[in-house]
Amino acid sequence: MNETKQRKVEVLFKWIMFTAAITGMAMISAYYPVQGNIPLIIIPSIMVLIFAKPVFFEKLKLTTLIVVRVLVVFAALELFKRQLYVNICLWALIINILEATFTDLLRHKKYFNAVSGFALAAGVLALSGAWAEGAPMGQFYTVTGALPVVTLCYIIAYTLWNWIFVTNEFSPSVALMHVGFLSAPIIGCICSAWMGPFGGLGMWLLLRANSLAIGGWLQIGAKSWFEKEYHDDKFAKFVDWTHTKPVQIVCMIINVALIVTCLVIAYKTGTLGLPNLFV
Questions:
Q1: Is the pTM value of this prediction over 0.85?
Q2: In sequence order, what are the residues at sequence separation of 6 or more whose Cβ sits closer than 8 angstroms to the Cβ of residue 97?
Q3: Residues 6+ away with beta carbon under 8 Å from 259
């Protein structure tokens, strides 16, 4: 095996191990918001904010995620209304999407992906969540649309939009790492499908929040390592290709079509609306 091929294999295996670790930690933190969430997300995230030097967007994003992760501890301990917490998470999803969307719009001038971002924020109106009372294991919440197709359409649209965003915001090496961030909640949905209504697609938002928070403190704390170890020339060329205008337009059209589908189904089923913060 020549040096180039060996390098590609090493990058692939590092990515697989990283994605597996993210998925495992995200699932443990999801089911055990006190025993898993505190040591795997809250403590290391706070340490990174204090001792590392995150850029403004990283600091803003990680701080938002820490607040939501702290609140889930209160909800699990029944010190906070559980349904209110779930509704706050949906509002936090809107805020996080808009943070990234305005970054795309104002800093990077990526207008097509910004349109997708605004559509994603509106698409939250088609989602609703509830604490998983009576689940066979753990303490957690689930978020779905009125029909499974709504949840699936939203997951696809979000994943496509967010990955385009991170390629605008970060280097190709970090973008490759984010493929792991975005894959982890989908893998987790598949792994939890055996739980029926308490698993599967309904776990996606919780696993996405967890994987983003875990990946966030890892990225901020070891960015230089990821920049070096995840570099791949072919992947960098692929990222450049996704930045071309035709690809950006196609991605925007796909995203908007998926979100319109979510909103139309939610409207017809009478489930369209913002999460209630006065429960």
A1: yes
A2: 117, 120, 121, 124
A3: 119, 120, 122, 123, 126, 153, 154, 157
- 246, pLDDT greater than 70: yes
Q: What is the chain's length? A: 279
- Tell which residue, 179, 259, 187, has the closest CA to residue 219: 179
**Interacting residues of 125 by C-beta distance below 8 A, sequence separation 6+:** 263, 266, 272, 273, 274
* Dist CA 155 CA 165 (whole Å): 15
- Name 130's bridge partners: 142
Which DSSP symbol is given to 77?
T
Three-state DSSP class for residue 130: strand
Tokens (6 digits) for 204: 């996606």
* Residues contacting residue 257 through CB under 8 Å, at least 6 positions apart: none
H-helix or E-strand spanning residue 18: helix 3-31
Give 87-144 pLDDT, tens digit per residue. Answer: 999 999 999 999 999 999 999 999 999 999 999 999 999 999 999 999 999 999 999 9
